[in-house]
Write a structure and sequence with these properties.
- By secondary structure, the protein is mainly β.
- It has strands at 4-7, 10-12, 18-24, 31-39, 46-52, 57-59, 67-71, 76-81, 90-98, 104-106, 110-114.
- Strands 2, 4, 5, 6, 9, 10 and 11 form a seven-stranded mixed beta sheet that branches. Strands 1-3-8-7 form a four-stranded antiparallel beta sheet, with no helix packed on it.
- A hairpin with a 4-residue loop joins strand 5 and strand 6 (57-59).
- The protein is globular and about 45 Å long.
- 25% of the residues are buried.
Length: 116
Protein backbone atom coordinates (compact mmCIF):
# COMPACT_ATOMS: atom_id res chain seq x y z
CA UNK A 1 0.00 0.00 0.00
CA UNK A 2 1.11 3.58 -0.70
CA UNK A 3 0.01 6.82 0.94
CA UNK A 4 0.36 10.01 -1.07
CA UNK A 5 0.34 13.48 0.48
CA UNK A 6 -0.07 16.49 -1.81
CA UNK A 7 0.56 20.17 -1.20
CA UNK A 8 0.99 23.40 -3.11
CA UNK A 9 -2.33 24.17 -4.77
CA UNK A 10 -4.01 27.56 -4.68
CA UNK A 11 -5.23 30.57 -6.63
CA UNK A 12 -2.99 32.20 -9.21
CA UNK A 13 -3.44 34.74 -11.99
CA UNK A 14 -3.09 33.75 -15.65
CA UNK A 15 0.57 33.61 -16.59
CA UNK A 16 1.59 32.85 -13.02
CA UNK A 17 3.30 29.83 -11.50
CA UNK A 18 2.62 27.22 -8.85
CA UNK A 19 4.55 24.24 -7.59
CA UNK A 20 2.84 21.07 -6.41
CA UNK A 21 4.52 18.52 -4.18
CA UNK A 22 3.66 14.84 -3.71
CA UNK A 23 5.26 12.82 -0.94
CA UNK A 24 4.93 9.04 -1.16
CA UNK A 25 5.14 6.66 1.79
CA UNK A 26 7.71 4.54 -0.02
CA UNK A 27 10.71 5.30 -2.17
CA UNK A 28 10.07 6.29 -5.76
CA UNK A 29 12.54 3.57 -6.79
CA UNK A 30 10.17 0.96 -5.36
CA UNK A 31 7.28 2.25 -7.46
CA UNK A 32 6.53 1.62 -11.11
CA UNK A 33 5.54 5.26 -11.62
CA UNK A 34 4.68 8.47 -9.79
CA UNK A 35 3.04 11.55 -11.24
CA UNK A 36 0.04 13.83 -11.55
CA UNK A 37 -3.42 13.74 -13.08
CA UNK A 38 -6.08 16.43 -13.03
CA UNK A 39 -9.85 16.67 -13.21
CA UNK A 40 -11.76 19.79 -14.17
CA UNK A 41 -15.48 20.20 -13.40
CA UNK A 42 -17.57 18.15 -15.79
CA UNK A 43 -14.54 16.49 -17.35
CA UNK A 44 -12.78 13.16 -16.99
CA UNK A 45 -9.56 12.78 -15.08
CA UNK A 46 -6.57 13.20 -17.40
CA UNK A 47 -2.83 12.66 -17.27
CA UNK A 48 -0.66 15.71 -16.64
CA UNK A 49 2.81 14.22 -16.18
CA UNK A 50 4.09 10.86 -15.09
CA UNK A 51 7.56 9.62 -14.28
CA UNK A 52 8.15 5.92 -14.91
CA UNK A 53 11.03 4.82 -12.73
CA UNK A 54 14.27 4.39 -14.71
CA UNK A 55 12.48 5.55 -17.87
CA UNK A 56 11.33 8.81 -19.41
CA UNK A 57 8.84 11.27 -18.02
CA UNK A 58 5.60 11.48 -20.00
CA UNK A 59 3.84 14.84 -20.39
CA UNK A 60 0.40 15.61 -21.76
CA UNK A 61 0.60 17.69 -24.92
CA UNK A 62 -1.23 20.57 -23.29
CA UNK A 63 1.50 21.08 -20.65
CA UNK A 64 4.66 20.52 -22.70
CA UNK A 65 7.02 23.43 -22.30
CA UNK A 66 5.06 24.82 -19.34
CA UNK A 67 5.10 22.11 -16.65
CA UNK A 68 8.09 20.17 -15.34
CA UNK A 69 8.01 17.04 -13.20
CA UNK A 70 11.11 16.48 -11.10
CA UNK A 71 12.28 14.42 -8.15
CA UNK A 72 13.03 16.33 -4.96
CA UNK A 73 14.23 13.33 -2.98
CA UNK A 74 13.72 9.57 -2.81
CA UNK A 75 10.06 9.95 -1.81
CA UNK A 76 8.90 13.25 -3.28
CA UNK A 77 8.15 14.60 -6.75
CA UNK A 78 7.49 18.20 -7.69
CA UNK A 79 5.31 19.57 -10.47
CA UNK A 80 6.47 23.05 -11.44
CA UNK A 81 3.68 24.76 -13.36
CA UNK A 82 4.53 27.93 -15.29
CA UNK A 83 2.54 30.11 -17.70
CA UNK A 84 -0.69 28.92 -16.15
CA UNK A 85 -3.93 29.36 -18.05
CA UNK A 86 -7.57 29.41 -16.89
CA UNK A 87 -7.96 26.02 -18.63
CA UNK A 88 -5.47 24.60 -16.12
CA UNK A 89 -8.04 25.08 -13.36
CA UNK A 90 -8.74 21.64 -11.88
CA UNK A 91 -8.21 19.38 -8.93
CA UNK A 92 -4.75 17.89 -9.28
CA UNK A 93 -4.23 14.34 -8.00
CA UNK A 94 -0.96 12.63 -7.25
CA UNK A 95 -0.90 9.09 -8.66
CA UNK A 96 1.35 6.12 -7.97
CA UNK A 97 1.44 2.66 -9.49
CA UNK A 98 3.21 -0.10 -7.59
CA UNK A 99 5.47 -2.65 -9.23
CA UNK A 100 4.24 -5.80 -7.56
CA UNK A 101 0.72 -5.85 -9.02
CA UNK A 102 0.41 -2.58 -10.98
CA UNK A 103 -2.21 -1.35 -8.51
CA UNK A 104 -2.99 2.38 -8.61
CA UNK A 105 -3.05 4.75 -5.63
CA UNK A 106 -4.33 8.32 -5.48
CA UNK A 107 -3.79 11.31 -3.25
CA UNK A 108 -6.65 13.36 -1.85
CA UNK A 109 -6.29 16.05 -4.51
CA UNK A 110 -5.31 19.71 -4.38
CA UNK A 111 -7.25 22.53 -6.02
CA UNK A 112 -5.53 24.74 -8.58
CA UNK A 113 -7.48 27.79 -9.73
CA UNK A 114 -6.19 30.10 -12.45
CA UNK A 115 -8.23 33.28 -12.58
CA UNK A 116 -7.82 37.03 -12.79
Amino acid sequence: QVQLVESGGGLVRPGGSLRLSCAASRSIFNLYSLGWYRQAPGKERELVARRITHEDTIYADFVKGRFTLSRENANTVLLQMNSLKPDDTAIYYCHARVRENMEDYWGQGTQVTVSS
